[in-house]
Each structure stands twice: as C-alpha cells, then as structure tokens.
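Researcher: Sequence recovery benchmark, item below. Answer with residues only.
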C-alpha cells in the first residue's frame, strides 16, 4: 500500500503502511534510491514508513512525480542491505540516570535490562531530530517504556536512551525525553568531517556492554583522534 499526498506546493508525502517494520522501511529506502536521479527532485527525507520528496515545480509537476513514484512500486523490494556497527555502551548508574525508573516500569533487574538491550540487533530506520540522531528499533517488548513525564533541557552527548520500542544515541547535548539507560564514548556526529554522520538509514546496530574503565579509555582515544572508527564495522 502506497499513498501520495500533496505536501505544500513543492513537496509530496509518500505514505506506506503506518507501522514500524523493517520491510516497510526497506520500501521507503528503495523508493528514495529509485527517485534520486529524477530531474526536478531536490531532496528527500525518509522516515519510518514515509518519504517526503521536495521538488522544483518548474522542472517536474506533482502529477509527473506521483506517476514516477507509483511506477517504482513493482520493483521496490530490491533495496541493498546496510552496514553493521558494533557500539560500546556503559550502563553504569553514573551515566544511566533513568535506569532505576526503567527497572520500576519494566520489573527487570539491571542485569536483565543490559542483557536485553545488548542481545538484540537494531535497524536504523530514520535520522532525526538533531544532526546525527539515529532512530533505531525495535526494542524487545520487555524493554518498552514511555518517555519521561518531564523532558530534560540538556541530555548529555553520547547518552543512550529508549522510548516506546525505539532506542538511540544523543549525538550532541540537546533537550530530550527518552529514558537514559547508558552512554557511549563514540562520536556519532562530527560536523567538520567530510562524512559527519556515523549512522545511515538501513544500517544495523549492535550494542555491547563495557565498564567505566573501558569507557574512559575509549573516551580519551576519541578526544585525541586516536580511536579507530573502522573497528566499529563488521
């Protein structure tokens, strides 16, 4: 199922079945790949189950763009797989301020939360609300938690959070309401680099647990530009 909806006079919203599902998100990414070289398409914004297409109406009409999008549908499943990243996370209470709250909500112990969070793989469905923030899912159902009643004004860089069936890493200090269960010393966004984003849509992420000592060692290497980022990729 795919619906095209006008989104102002210079954009079109393509909506698929409204679910967080890897197969649906694959359709979103495949459509983006097939439209990337269409004359008149200026930019595209992929989300969980939709694609926003910004276009120049002087070069392509809405109806032409709608037709091209719908004609892509039959071959939409041929999307290539993304990369696999392994990200170290410290679940120490010093950098996991919401761990006790999550334990209360879920009824799980700290050890069970860490085991569940690190034993699953997560797809990067979309990039959002600040540069470098990757929305990943799905969390195991046992870890499902609501957002905090009162968002923080400043979530620390590197904080690992969960909300609903999503998990993610704050790439910089920012307001946020996700439950913080850990932190990573890895830089997810480096504005001055030619390729500033650690994650891309379609990537698969695995988290592994590290202690506070290992966290500090990696943190020093990152700050001194000595950390080998290639080691994160399988």
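Model:
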């Amino acid at each position: 199922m795919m619906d095209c909806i006008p989104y102002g006079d210079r954009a079109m919203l393509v909506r698929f079945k409204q679910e967080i599902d890897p197969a649906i998100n694959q359709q979103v990414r495949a459509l983006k790949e097939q439209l990337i070289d269409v004359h008149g398409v200026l930019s595209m914004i992929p989300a969980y189950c939709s694609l926003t297409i910004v276009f120049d109406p002087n070069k392509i009409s809405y109806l032409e763009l709608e037709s091209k999008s719908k004609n892509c549908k039959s071959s939409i499943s041929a999307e290539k797989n993304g990369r696999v990243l392994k990200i170290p996370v410290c679940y120490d209470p010093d950098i996991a301020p919401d761990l006790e709250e999550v334990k209360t909500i879920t009824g799980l112990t700290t050890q069970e939360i860490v085991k569940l969070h690190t034993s699953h793989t997560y797809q990067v469905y979309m990039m959002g609300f600040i540069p470098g923030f990757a929305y990943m899912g799905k969390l195991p159902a046992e870890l499902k938690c609501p957002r905090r009643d009162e968002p923080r004004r400043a979530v620390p860089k590197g904080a690992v959070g969960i909300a609903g069936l999503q998990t993610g890493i704050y790439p910089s200090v920012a307001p946020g309401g996700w439950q913080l269960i850990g932190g990573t010393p890895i830089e997810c966004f480096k504005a001055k680099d030619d390729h500033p984003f650690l994650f891309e849509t379609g990537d698969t992420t695995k988290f592994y647990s590290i202690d506070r000592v290992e966290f500090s060692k990696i943190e020093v290497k990152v700050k001194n530009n000595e950390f080998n980022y290639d080691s994160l990729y399988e």
